[in-house]
Design goal:
Layout (H helix, E strand, L loop, with lengths): L13 E4 L2 E5 L14 E5 L2 E4 L5 H11 L21 H14 L6 E8 L12 E5 L11 H8 L62 E7 L22 E4 L15 E4 L8 E2 L3 E3 L1
Parallel strand pairs: 7-10
Antiparallel strand pairs: 1-4, 2-3, 4-11, 5-6, 7-8, 8-9
């Protein structure tokens, strides 16, 4: 339910991440086939939002633009991560906020032209979307950028808070499903928690593991790591599904590892999916 309270203009808190070269993928040799082979990747320095976009942020956008408000599924609004929006909603928000803050928009969105690179027959949007990677506006992270950030700029780190063991009092994941030896058994929360809940990692990034899946720019390809370029990879040229990272409150610790890969249709929304933004330095 939307209240009449005054919501402030979104002002994303960003943290700067250094450039670096790291070994991307399952460096623990415990993951799924799509997390291999481990390969070297170079990532440029960037600014990343410290936490996911909240309902307060997105509700302001909707109130200004006249868009429908996202359904919180009775899980709460305010500083809860915005859910039930799709990938297209996210990139439109990025462009809108770029304009509000005086930055150059990253995404060129043509709603009247079908994207020939979108092979998902169920996606009735199929907007043609291209990126100006030199623009200084807000955008979704690439999959490589997301993993680099979640691993404290490329360290050998299993979980996005900097820990090698998932603990239910430090992350929002399904602690009732034991995953030995990488997690402690504990409670399972019935919903997401606030975007700045728990302790962040050393780069002040909150909830990079658990809470909600975070959408990335890239198309998903199970075998992409075997052909991924070294310098700032941006995913395959085409696909059916988009990459999501980080796991959620409904998943066990295995799904919440920093190397775990998931895929979601661009046109579908979900109570488990949110996003955070990045900007070039």
């Amino acid at each position: 339910m939307i209240t009449n309270k005054t919501i402030a203009m979104p002002k994303p808190e960003m943290t700067q991440l250094i450039a670096g070269i790291f070994k991307m993928g399952d460096t623990f040799a415990e993951g799924n086939a799509d997390e291999r082979p481990v390969h070297q990747v170079k990532v440029n320095a960037l600014h990343m939002m410290k936490y996911c976009v909240s309902f307060d942020d997105f509700d302001f956008y909707c109130s200004i633009t006249g868009r429908p408000f996202a359904d919180d599924a009775n899980m709460g609004r305010g500083q809860m991560p915005v859910i039930n929006i799709n990938w297209y909603d996210m990139i439109e928000y990025c462009n809108w906020l770029s304009e509000q803050d005086g930055y150059e928009k990253v995404y060129n969105i043509d709603k009247n032209k079908l994207d020939p690179n979108n092979h998902n027959e169920e996606d009735l949007f199929k907007w043609s979307v291209s990126s100006n990677w030199e623009a200084n506006g807000y955008r979704l992270p690439t999959e490589a950028e997301w993993e680099f950030a979640a691993r404290n700029c490329g360290g050998h780190i299993r979980f996005g808070n900097g820990s090698q063991i998932a603990k239910p009092d430090e992350m929002n994941f399904d602690g009732m499903e034991p995953v030995n030896p990488i997690a402690e058994v504990g409670k399972k929360r019935p919903a997401p928690v606030k975007v700045q809940a728990f302790e962040p990692n050393k780069y002040e990034l909150y909830n990079m593991s658990g809470n909600v899946w975070e959408m990335c720019w890239d198309w998903y390809d199970e075998g992409y790591y075997s052909e991924s370029p070294m310098n700032n990879p941006k995913g395959p040229a085409a696909g059916k599904l988009k990459v999501a990272r980080g796991g959620s409150w409904v998943h066990n610790a295995f799904k919440c590892r920093t190397m775990s890969r998931e895929h979601k249709a661009a046109h579908l929304s979900d109570v488990r999916i949110g996003f955070r933004m990045v900007r070039r330095v």
